[in-house]
Amino acid sequence: GHVQLLPPQHVTLLSKDFEMILTWSPGEGSPPDVTYTVRYKSQDHMDKWIKVPHCKDIPRTSCILTCMFSNIYIKGRAQVKAVSGQLQSPWVKSQFKDYFSKVELAPPVLILNVKEKLIQVNASFPLPTCVENLSLKYELNHWEAGSEDKKKYEGYRKDSVTIDTTALGNTHCFSARSIYESIDLKHSKFSQPVCVPLNHRG
After folding, report:
1. Is-contact 78 118, C-beta < 8 A?
2. 127 and 192, same structural domain?
3. How many domains does the chain have?
4. What range does the domain containing 19 cover?
5. What is the spatial distance between Cα 11 and Cα 26, in angstroms, rounded to a whole number?
6. What's one Pfam family here (predicted)?
7. SS3 letters for the chain?
């Protein structure tokens, strides 16, 4: 009987939370000890596949490739093979993608600084190091707890929004989403609301 290891299935290069990730699922009848090795190439060096050091002989079925590609405009692809003992499966390739047009955003993390008569809101973005300079904006929603009436603010990533709380009562909630303009305008989901009680003394 000829024993062979079936290749990984559903090999996909996708983006999630500012990362580029290769995902796959185990080939049919994969043994429990199967591991995977990933290589990639991008369109500026088409002649050779390059090893991904952090994705060699890994048991998991995904590999983060964000900072492997030389820049965000160049399309890249990856391939993965399964290994078990002496057996190796054939390589399976993903499609080509580039970061610039395919990136999917994560919501910003809101940092609230509550002072006596104002709240200062800053947004921090969970970006991988190689794309720290993306020019991102954020849209901020502000509302009083229990009210449907939301005020919207928009700012670039380094901007802070200052809200005068003198005339405001009770508890105030904030939520924001990231905005990125590539080929079209992209938005992340809104972040989980953060609420702060305002204790105004008369």
Report:
1. no
2. yes
3. 2
4. 9-98
5. 10
6. Tissue_fac
7. CCCCCCCCEEEEEEEECCEEEEEEECCCCCCCCCEEEEEEEECCCCCCCEECHHHCCECCCEEECHHHCCCCCCCEEEEEEEEECCEECCCEECCCECHHHHCCCCCCEEEEEECCCEEEEEEECCCCHHHCCCCCEEEEEEEECCCCCCEEEEEECCCEEEEECCCCCCEEEEEEEEEEECCCEEECCCCCCEEEECCCCC
> Other C-beta atoms within 10 Å of 154: how many?
12
The residue whose two tokens read 């990639």 is: 40
Residues 172 and 175: their CA atoms lie apart, in Å, by 10
Q: CATH no. for residue 124?
A: 2.60.40.10
Q: How far apart are CA 3 and CA 116, in angstroms?
A: 72
Chain position carrying tokens 């190439």 = 41
Show pLDDT as tens, one digit a residue, over the chain (202 residues).
Answer: 456 899 999 999 999 999 999 999 999 999 999 999 999 999 888 789 999 999 999 999 999 999 998 889 999 999 999 999 999 999 999 999 999 999 999 999 999 998 888 899 999 999 999 998 899 999 999 999 888 899 999 999 889 999 988 877 788 999 999 999 988 899 999 999 999 988 655 4
